[in-house]
Amino acid sequence: MNSDLKTSLRPFHHDRAGGALSCDGVSLGTLAKKYGTPLYVYSANQIAERLDLFQQAFSGRDHLVCYAVKANSSLAILKLLAERGAGFDIVSGGELERVIAAAPEAVGRVVFSGVGKTATEIDRALEMEILEFNVESESELALLAECARMIKKRARFALRVNPDVFAETHPYISTGLREHKFGIDIRRAAEIYRKAAKSRWLEPHGISVHIGSQIRSAQPFGAAMDRVVKLVTQLKREGIALKVVDAGGGLGIDYHGGEDGADPAAKVLEYAAAIEKALAGSDGKLLIEPGRFIVAQAGALVTRVLNVKKNGKKTFVITDAAMNDLIRPALYQAYHEIVPVKPRAGRARAVDVVGPVCETGDFFARDRMLKPVEAGDLVALLDAGAYGMAQSSNYNTRFRPAEVLVEGKQHRLIRRREEMKDLLATEII
Ligand code: LLP
Q1: Does 173 contact ligand 1 (Cβ within 6 A)?
Q2: Domain 113-290, architecture per CATH
Q3: Which of 143, 217, 336, 380 has CB atoms 3.0–4.6 Å from 300's, for a disulfide?
Q4: Which residues are catalytic?
């Protein structure tokens, strides 16, 4: 293993034993005081480092890391990644506009995935000359051809094939089985490529696969890639030479922060080895679409304790962040480590950490062992950089949090907190 790739799990550390929590040395207490809570805080260094891990791991071949915008679509983060050579995997016209706003020079490095693209979205992406469309059905391919014909531009496409590979993850985020709504049955793909190859408006450019998210083992990625490579070889024999193989995203992180996840670099190398093994001997460009692995551990949601309340035997720690700010625990029973920013002395005890939203599902943790906290204390929900802010909402007419990017010893606001006028702006009485 290349030890240069060794990197840290999280940028959040206590200054010293019993000291306050900081992000790359910038105190979370200071940030909370300056910008208020709830507050998302990200380490730019870690995001750049994670991108670099993938870029180094595949440096032996022509490749492009297309960051999955859905994981965290904040403009400053997109810009940071684009400046370091990343491309982008988008799933909506809105995400395309985000890339254009943050890094217009990167639009040629965009792949457009998603099961339901509209003609308007396709038109805009054709006009912007994105790298390729990852097409998920025959009817979508017909729509793409029609849009391309109207503006007389050939559309580069990849079929997103469904390889029927099982990946161990939460059922809501597993996608690579025939029973899922995603992709085209791999057994039918060759026939569709053959037909499309005859179209004047379609260019068979690549092939793509994405088997799910938060996958911790490298094995299913290799298995999916094996099936894809077989198809690529068969098509090549028939004279359909695809230039790009897109392995999708999905590499998981260790939310428990245990030993297993102690070396993200090793995880990336293991993932790359599984893909390289399947690709052995094939040329062409490799695309990957990681989202979570790049941004999750770089981010924390900092929140203030409003109240500590006892109901019978249970203790509830009520925070000013809620399910609308970070929905992962409510939606996927996801685990996020919770750390007091300034630890108090005393024994840990089992508490429920909950938000103020009027739903029993509004919790961050149940029966979690937590060191004592009191009203006014700050706590940080770790590994919240991916699918945190991106899945936030205004439920209960709550303002979505502000976001801060820590850049070395500096920090800056990259999204201000919403205000009532932002929420009312679109409404008509
Ligand atoms: N490419 C495609 C086509 C995808 O659908 C996804 C994620 C990715 C790439 C990036 O996957 P990643 O590397 O981030 O695992 N909200 C859920 C995760 C949903 C993932 C959806 N697709 C969560 O919070 O766990």
Answers
A1: yes
A2: Alpha-Beta Barrel (3.20)
A3: 380
A4: 358
